[in-house]
Each structure stands twice: as structure tokens, then as C-alpha cells.
Amino acid sequence: MHHPQPPSGIHPLLAQRFSPYRFDPSAVVDDHAVGLLLEAARWAPSAGNSQPWGFFIGRPGEPDHDRVLPHLAPNSARWATDASLLVVTLTRRHVDDTQLLYSEFADYDLGQAVAHLTVQAQAMGLAAHQFRAFDLEGLTKELDPKPGWVIISMVAVGKAVGGPPEGRDRRSIAHLRSAPWSPAE
């Protein structure tokens, strides 16, 4: 059974979170707000306290934003360009230019940092939309991360226009518990 609305009891920041496809282009996320978003990400848990995440931030009207825009896929460019921030997420998978793993949990840990950033955005009256519709090869060439670092995703952050869509659908708890397993015979 799917629950169109989250059950009472989960935190409102989680219950009200959604990924908007429209942002207010006049909204500004100032340096202080950017600092709070990154501070929330900084405090995410990581394996062995490795903290294998990094972020490249671009705001409209700034050169770093202009570096990212050409690499957005057309379907994400339609809505992401109006966001107050475009955040490129990176993880440190390897030690420098070797194949030695920096952390086998790097991608997972980055996900936690992005989740913290997302909840902090929600607490600040902002919304975050995580996405992967961009030219990974082109953006990697443009930003040229240090050896061992790889770009994983992007997050558009800003003031959402409108609220969550009606009838949001999430998989049931029963499905979450049963989907990975083969039926018993």
C-alpha cells in the first residue's frame, strides 16, 4: 500500500521535502546561507571519519555558475538554471592518481553529506533537487578535479515555486523490506 502523505510522527522537514522543478529566479542564497548548507554537510557521518566529499558551488551571475551551465542536459537546464545555487558534488574514491581506494564507502558517505545539506536547506525555507542529468565528461574536463576525486551528481538549491505535487507516491515500508529478497520456497 502506498501512502500519499507521510504518516504523522516523521519530522516535518522530512515529510515536507520534495524535489522542485521550478525555482524562484529572484531568490538569493547569500554567503552565510551557503556556509550553513556546507556546515550541515560537513557534520555528516562517514566511514572512519574520512569525510570523502567535496562541493563546487555556483550562483547565478558568478563565473563558477557560468562554468557549470553549459554542461546541464536540456531537461535539467529548463528548471535548474533558475535555482539560487548549483552544487556539483564530488567524492574522493582513490588516493591521488592510484587505484588504491581512499574509502570504499565514499559514494555512500557523499550521499549522507548531500542528505544533510538537503535537510538543512529545508530548515532554511529552501528546497533542493538532486540530479544527474548533465554531461559528466564535459563537466569533469571543465572543473578538472584533483586525481582521486570524481564528480557524482549535482544539487539545485533555491526557493521553490509551488509545493509538492499532489498525490506523491512512495514505495511502501513492506516493499522496502521485501524488494531485495527472493521469495522463500
Automatic annotation (TrEMBL):
Oxidoreductase as UniProt keyword: yes
Record Pfam families: Nitroreductase
Domain Nitroreductase: 14-71
Keywords: Oxidoreductase
InterPro entries (alphabetical): Nitroreductase, Nitroreductase-like
Keyword Oxidoreductase: yes
Superkingdom of origin organism: Bacteria
Family membership noted in the UniProt record: Belongs to the nitroreductase family.
Name this polypeptide is given: Nitroreductase family protein
Species this chain originates from: Streptomyces lichenis
